[in-house]
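@channel anyone free to eyeball this complex?
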Amino acid sequence: MRNAIIALILLALFAALFWLPSYAPYFYIFVATEILLMGLFAASFNLIFGYTGMLSFGHAAFFGIGGYTAALLLLHFQLPLFWVLLLSMLAGMLLAAVIGFFCVRLDEVYFAMLTLAFGMMTYAVVHQWRSLTNGSDGVAGFALREFGLGLDLQLADPAVYYQMVLVIVVLASLALYLITRSPFGLLLRAISENAERVAFCGINVRRYRLLSFIIAGTFAGLAGGLFAPFNRVANPDMVHWTESAQPVLMTILGGAGYFLGPYFGAAVFVLLETWITTYTEQWMLFLGVILAIMVIFFRRGILGTILDWLLRRQ
Amino acid sequence: MNEPILSVRGLSKSFGGVHAVQNVSLDVWPREKVALIGPNGAGKTTFYNMLSGRLRPSDGSVSFEGQDITGLPPHRISRLGISRSFQITNIFSELSVRQNVEVALTALHGKGLQMFRIASRDRALREEAEQILAQLGLAELADLRAGVLSYGDKRLLEIAIVLATRPRLVLLDEPTAGMTPEETRQVTRLIRELAASNTYTFLITEHDMSVVFDLADRIVVMHRGQLLAEGSPEEIRNNKAVREAYLGEEEEP
Ligand SMILES: Nc1ncnc2c1ncn2[C@@H]1O[C@H](COP(=O)(O)OP(=O)(O)OP(=O)(O)O)[C@@H](O)[C@H]1O
Ligand SMILES: [Mg+2]
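replying in thread with the prediction:
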């Protein structure tokens, strides 16, 4: 019964979002696309953070490499977007395998520092490798042609691109959700709570941490691969360490203990940023205050706090 | 008799200058119930830590069923068939009681890499977990968050996780510590039942002498990191050195 209600609400939400272009102002199509992509990016981060218990400060590396892969493939090979996205995921996966191989050996703050270090190295490479990446200007000037798979989509139309992003993000999120509920996901949650005990149950903890890291990198690569065509450019901002901070902030804002927390956090983050920056330059100040309040009073995030409140009223 | 299931030779561990375990050799035979006793700080937990892979020995060797396992990581040793409980309760407080056991069963059955099916819909896993919980009298608590259990029930869950790895050698580190007399009796009864099934070998550390003398086929006494005595409960009861080691520390049985 409760599950049916939740499913119905999500279905209604999906329908409302899918037909957003028909009733919302044009501007909000862009806002909604950004929310979806940052939501997926943050949710992939939360597989490592909320579900495996490791705080990564270098997640933008995978988002960024996904974006650059997409931009370069579109620019030089004019591949259909579907194949571009698959290769973006592959790029995120491979980079996560390499970076993760070193990082999952470390715990706690050392893990965080090493992911940050690798994130900075990735940024430096992207920024310096001018012949390939065009330095700080980034890769731009590519055109979106077809989606592939025989689908006839007018991807150059922001409304169509938004609807495509929505469908892909929903599918990717379902896959991520299934992973968190799977036996593998159960072991990840157990590891996040008490890695030692899991090891004494016969599990090679490092291997599971690495797999979690790689899966997260793959989905971040997908988010990046969708983001670059949306933004019309893949530039070093996508790989910068401040970009790595975004999923961390969004996840804490929304609630790391809930699968939908990061999406919720991304929505609040992007909407607030949009509204506040139309009134004042001091977005960072507002964000800082909001985060401080969240961390001091609402540790479970906005979504967690709302759900707690609803459950208590029942 | 056949081969020992566990064979320890000259095992030592020092932390800086502290010789926590010194040159301990011990054979444990299949289906035996051996009690490892000794005053606080004798080195019992450190000894377990080396057997189970939590600590790397400074010296010496451990072999299990004829295979050298010295210095192997915990997950390898667990998979070979040695499982341990912890003196300080070591469970997954945020997971449900059932999930605590399912974590171990998932590992045991090699289901850990299944990513595209819902864990809670795995009927076989669920039933096996519930069967183990029933064995410990925890069946009714299966859906509770493990963190809210009473202290005694947490200790029982600790043992449930150990059993769920289906070990052949079980290392219990003070399983009844802090339990009520009723819970202690329950654990003693459980260990005797499990031993009767003839599939387990037990090495048990215990401060409660009634439990020790009740259960053990053989008693090994450690003192200041060394083996002080070894023998049948009767022999240990009458051993002078053991009495002296315990003098002023514990009440004699
Ligand atoms: N990680 C460690 N670092 C330094 N010293 C340690 C460490 N672990 C144990 N020791 C020391 O080694 C000695 C043996 O400790 P151990 O915990 O093995 O004793 P025990 O027999 O289990 O005692 P108890 O009955 O109190 O549980 C003690 O002197 C202890 O302080
Ligand atoms: Mg001890």
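from a first look: The mean pLDDT of chain B is 91.
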